[in-house]
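P.,

For your records, the input lines for the assembly:
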Amino acid sequence: MILIVDDQKDIGTGLERLLRYAGHEAVSVTGGAEALAMLHVRKPALLVLDVNMPEMDGLTVLKAIKEHDELKDVRIAMYSTDTHAETITEARRLGAVDFLVKGTIGFDKLVARICELAGEPNGQAS
Amino acid sequence: MRLAEFILANVEPILGEWEVFARSIGAGENLDQLALRDHAGKILEATARDMRSPQTAAERAQKSKGQENAPESSGLDGASDLHAIDRLSLGFDMLEVMSEYRALRASVLRLWHESAPDPHERDLDDLTRFNESIDQSLSKAVASYAKRVNQARDMFLAILSHDLRNPLGAIAMSAQLLPTVIDDKAEVLECGRMVSRSAEVMEHMISDLLDYTRTRLGTGMPVDPAPLDLETLGRELYDEFRASHPKRKMIFQASGDLHGQWDYDRLRQAISNLLGNAIQHGSAEFPIRLSLGSEGSFVFIAVHNGGEPIPAGELPRVFDPLIRGSSVDRPRKNRPGSIGLGLYIAREVAKSHHGRIDVVSSGGEGTTFTIRLPRGGAPRVSQPILDAEHIDTM
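Structure tokens returned:
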């Protein structure tokens, strides 16, 4: 399962649907707190995480997961419009496996990359 | 007494006069004494030092022509740079900064003349040196101000392009999905709704941007006042926000006569922006309160949220989208569907109705934005860059 966290609901559900039609199980939520609650119930193969979100931003969510003994193994890829080198470096330092910039990668490639990071070859259901 | 000595001996009275003027400027009326005086004392002292330093005829000629390689006083330049940047951060526009220098010049010369009514032949030299110093300081301040505004504008455009990328991305996703889901009517409809919602968000952002550019160009925000029941409008917005933010606690209060002549769409936009701001910045632990009330010939609209207060240093610039709480390295985060012009537009809506908006914020009390409007709401044709009263005092 691939979990998507994006406060822009249409982006989250849009990516969720793209992944589902590519044969993967995907779920989207709109906030970090909701994502953390879900992780305690079921760990995804990959967490796709936005950065700029109200209340709890993506880097805070990333840090909270990586500092949690039971959750720290969750693979996390950031997916954001934030292209500041400082943000990307910090995400990498905190343990993100990739930083995907919104709008700079075609959706076919995006889905393929997410599936690759999730360890689910494209076209195969999880 | 020579003018340079007079300035150094009378810094306080000069600053006192200048403060009265700075307070009369729109952005300065809510500032405390310290903020108003900021670097003025240092500018005065640097000016006096500059006047006392030896200067050749060639240097004087260069300086008077404003040539780039004119000799510079580092103290004078530093104080002018800092003053301009501080004024910008406090919400002064460039004309207001320039008018402050004009007022400083006028204050010094009036007080000097009063102290020694009989002119001396040296006075002309002193006056020339003084004017050269003030002109140099002013040109440095203007250059510094313009540079900082350009930096802020570049950052604003970067934020705008970032924020537009999200709804654009949602539209592109829908286009990507359509061929796959074309036989599934429900999915096709959802793609259509997604395109429609995203287009609406982008339209909202672009409308905000147009409002911003229109008001910044000085043509003012057009309003079309008509009889309106503010309580009905307030309750509509309260219900909408409660429905769209079911997890947030909200309170609605209305009292007194809330009828008047206002532009329905613009007032809706202003209150909606304030509520959106409270949702974004307020703590979810505290309720958001929308209060409407009557104060004689005025009504007020107050939006309160709890949580972290706005830092005191940022309060004077909270309505300026180019300056407020952001830097090139770390731009602020806008709420979804917003490009961060909400508070600016709320202020312009209040001004276009001959009203005003104020903000108070503290750790214990939270943050309250209050719009006060006269009931009349006569249409405002255009808004001059400087109000008439400012021009009178220049």
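Two observations worth noting. Chain B touches chain A at residues 162-163, 165-170, 172-174, 176-177, 180-181, 187, 194, 197-198, 280, 284, 329-330, 333, 335-336 (CB under 8 Å). Residues 324-332, 379-394 of chain B have pLDDT under 50 and may be disordered.

Regards
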